[in-house]
Amino acid sequence: MTGTPPIWDDEWEATVLPAIADHGKHRSVAEMVHQRIGGYEAFGDYMRAVFDRTEAWLAALDASELNRVVIGRPLPEQIASTYSARVAGPQGITLLDAASAGSTSTACATWARSSLPGAWSASAA
Fold first, then answer.
1. Which residues contact 53 (CB under 8 A, 6 or more apart)?
2. N or C: which end of the chain has fewer CB atoms below 10 A?
3. Is there a contact between 79 and 70 (Cβ–Cβ < 8 Å)?
4. Which residue has the higher pLDDT, 51 or 24?
């Protein structure tokens, strides 16, 4: 979405120390229920880096970009069963769909919405 590589890499994995080295999107709850973070302070540092980069990206984003389709239909198999696919419009997944689906909790969604007031309601119309 941002045109830059993800922040998560082998270095972060080595300091955050997840018990399961996988984001879990394609795993069952039974598999991922055992996920634990071994380096909690490093995880906080990682989340701060993600929020800081996201806020900088949002500050520079033109709200008209939110309706740009980033993954067109037909959706690839690995995406077709995700939440992003469920909220996608007829053309495919927009930048807004992808960003909102990436919010992993109510708190993240609230924070994301507060970063772009008006853009969320305008794009939903």
1. 2, 4, 7
2. C
3. no
4. 51
Sole residue written with tokens 């039974």: 30
* 3-state DSSP assignment of residue 69: strand
Q: What is the mean pLDDT of residues 4-25?
A: 89
In the chain the beta strands, taken as DSSP E runs, fall at: 69-72, 92-94
**For residue 114, what are the CA distances in angstroms to 54, 69, 86, 95, 117?**
13, 22, 23, 17, 5
Q: Which long-range contacts (CB under 8 A, 24 or more apart) does 16-24 make?
A: 16/42, 16/43, 16/46, 17/42
Spans of all domains in the chain: 7-60, 62-125
Cβ atoms 58, 102 nearer than 8 A: no
What Rg value do the Cα atoms of the chain yield, rounded?
Answer: 16
Average the pLDDT over 109-125 and give the result.
Answer: 47
Task: Return the structure tokens found at 19.
Answer: 């018990």
**Rounded average pLDDT over 51-59:** 86
* Contact (CB, 8 A) for 71 and 93: yes
